[in-house]
Amino acid sequence: MAGRGRSGDRIEPSFSGRPARDDDEFSLDADDRIAGGRSQRRGGSTPPPKRAAPRRRREPREREGGGFFGFMRRMVYWCVVLFIWAGIGVAGLVVYYGSRMPSASTWAIPERPPNVKITAVDGSVIANRGATGGEALSLENMSPYIPEAVIAIEDRRFYSHFGVDPLGLGRAIVTNLAAGHMVQGGSTLTQQLAKNLFLSPERTLERKVQEVLLSLWLEQKYTKDQILAMYLNRVFFGSNAYGVEAASRRYFNKSARDVNLGEAAVLAGLLKAPSRLSPARDAEAANARAQLVLAAMREQGFITDSEVKTAMSQTPASAKSYWSGAGHYVADMVMDELPGLIGDVKEDVIVDTTIDKSLEKKAEQSLVDVLDKEGGKLDASQAALVSIDGTGAIRALVGGRDYATSQFNRAVKAKRQPGSSFKPFVYAAALEKGLTPYSVFNDAPIRIGDWTPENYEKKYNGEVTLATALAKSLNTVAAQLVMYDGPDQVIKLAHRLGIESELQPNASIALGTSEVSLMELTASYAAFMNGGYKATPHVIRRVTTAEGKVLYENTYDSPPRVLSEQIAAQMDAMMMGVIDNGTGKSAKIPGWQAAGKTGTTQNSRDALFVGFTSNLTTGVWFGNDDGKPMKKVTGGGLPAKAWKEFMIAAHKGLSPAPLFGNGQLIADPNNGQPMAEAAPGNGQTGGGQLGSGQPMTAEAPPSTIGGIISGVFGGSDNANRYPQAPVRRQAASSGNGPVPPADIAEGGGSGYQGVVPPGDVGGAQTTSSVQPRRTTLLDLIMGQ
């Protein structure tokens, strides 16, 4: 309750419902006495109370820090605190992730995967093979534009930082924040090398910490030039190319030693996105990136404005989509053979081959020319070529129309029926048995068991010499010859000359029904060319390490004799007739003696021509991978044309030289009788020079035992009727002359059990008149 003073004024107690304010009408004096709720004043009258001085209102507490400057002081304070704690945290992460790494004493640069450098006879590079695709080059050996371009666009402070570039990292962060997305990386070349050498590409904090630690170690252990060289020789450039040498050959078909400024800019530009910026995939994007590289090089002072203008015209418009060129068929072949020669490749090696690059290009061009001109209308889509010299060295090899489209080597790995191109082995076996090119056989319908071979033109010529029969590729005569000595003897001779594939011992082998590769067939023909020596096909001459240590060197310089000189010369002369007067006329080479043989399989599924001059033996195949028949393509057509184009180009500028034995046959010294049997390899058959006798023709053939027997068995009369197969009987013995071809077991070719003469050639016969025939001169004389 309120009390009253003596003056009667009402006094509000200090514990009223609100606090006393500075602007109250009055306040109690300090001398006032308050007792019993009353105010006692001294004296009877007192002066009016004094008004207290107003108090200063306090500022809010937050203003006491000093406003903006206080805010900045507090920001700096907390930044320092956060920085300290961040440093502690980073140090902890470094220690933690560093402890998960192997001991630094065990760190070592991993070995670069070995490269196989494959060279031609002139030392030029055919291809590089291996995980990297190219050999390692020192900075001194590569174009100086390459390291300059890479430094300018990837790490301009490479030679000044210690493995990590804080300024570059900061610049990258600012650039990326301004752009709103990742446009620039902050890793140095050393960091990129560390990642490529030791770490996985995953983006984790652990990997980044380890990358930094490894970068510091690299900078301490190696010089800047060594680090840059390692980087340039290992970094990925796309298209399976690792290192500048592989990339340069991949995109520009040249060594990194010869790269110009514009090409160096393209290579450096690839590092940002090897697949997306590949000139093989997007030439426009690759060139746009190259312009940025050139600008960076100009900014760093590596090049001048005039050089920039020149370089802009040097950037390639495009690159091929894959490794291309027939040389890569050779490279694949080398890689298939190399482990068998030196074992596993554990270091960089150089493989010197027998390939002549100029011949290789001519071979590829000849096939492409014929296919482009006539392949489409004749349904021929593929071709292959092998060219071998007299020692067996492969001078040119084309495994298909386009390596970029198909890497399958049709010259080496594909096995197909050779057709009539197998007949020279049949004829050579007959000559070894004692026949001569003048021996006469009857070209007429023939049945061997259930097999009735026909000539390609379904026409018959009656009595012909072996030389004429081979020139015209008469199937009936070849079938008779294979049975004269038996398929086994033909197979033995073919294997002796170089055929490695398994051959079926049946009568149809005369027409080339057993499959072989083009390479082994061509190499076997080389024995005819070189006078009877085996020509083992080989493409590797020597293998050395990068330091020059010889790991392998071939030993094909002393080949064995597989055919007598006389037989080789006779076969050369007979096969020369194939080109001069027979089925291979399209293969004539102006000014050169050439010999060869055509081959065509059933329904023109395969067509071949294999032939030779005194310098080269070359085989050509045309066909389709799926076995689809071509439109009446024979060995004397597309293959002979491609063979001629290649051989003319290969012999350009060379002086013509005759074939072994001068390509001539001597007059028949035995008047049609077989010569003494020549043992293969004895080398005692007249020195191989057959003189300058008259070439054999089909007109007025000399009288031979074969002719007598053919007359007895029936000539061209009733030639259109096939006689019944005779009853099987034992062969009659004879030592005087050729016995006409024999029948085989009643079951046909698959039931062949041995030679069972004679075969039915021409003539008609009824089943009721089947009886043992007189097959030898002795039989004829004795009337048996």
UniProtKB/TrEMBL annotation:
The keyword Transferase applies. The chain crosses the membrane at residues 75-97. Residues 389-605 form the Penicillin-binding protein transpeptidase domain. GO terms for biological process: cell wall organization; peptidoglycan biosynthetic process; proteolysis; regulation of cell shape. Residues 131-297 form the Glycosyl transferase family domain. Residues 1-64, 668-771 are annotated as: Disordered. Keywords: Carboxypeptidase, Cell shape, Cell wall biogenesis/degradation, Glycosyltransferase, Hydrolase, Membrane, Multifunctional enzyme, Peptidoglycan synthesis, Protease, Transferase, Transmembrane, Transmembrane helix. Pathway: Cell wall biogenesis; peptidoglycan biosynthesis. One of its GO terms (molecular function) is penicillin binding. Residues 1-12 have a biased composition (Basic and acidic residues). One of its GO terms (cellular component) is outer membrane-bounded periplasmic space. It catalyses: Preferential cleavage: (Ac)2-L-Lys-D-Ala-|-D-Ala. Also transpeptidation of peptidyl-alanyl moieties that are N-acyl substituents of D-alanine; [GlcNAc-(1->4)-Mur2Ac(oyl-L-Ala-gamma-D-Glu-L-Lys-D-Ala-D-Ala)](n)-di-trans,octa-cis-undecaprenyl diphosphate + beta-D-GlcNAc-(1->4)-Mur2Ac(oyl-L-Ala-gamma-D-Glu-L-Lys-D-Ala-D-Ala)-di-trans,octa-cis-undecaprenyl diphosphate = [GlcNAc-(1->4)-Mur2Ac(oyl-L-Ala-gamma-D-Glu-L-Lys-D-Ala-D-Ala)](n+1)-di-trans,octa-cis-undecaprenyl diphosphate + di-trans,octa-cis-undecaprenyl diphosphate + H(+). It comes from the Bacteria. In the N-terminal section; belongs to the glycosyltransferase 51 family. In the C-terminal section; belongs to the transpeptidase family. This is Penicillin-binding protein. The lineage of its organism: Bacteria, Pseudomonadati, Pseudomonadota, Alphaproteobacteria, Hyphomicrobiales.
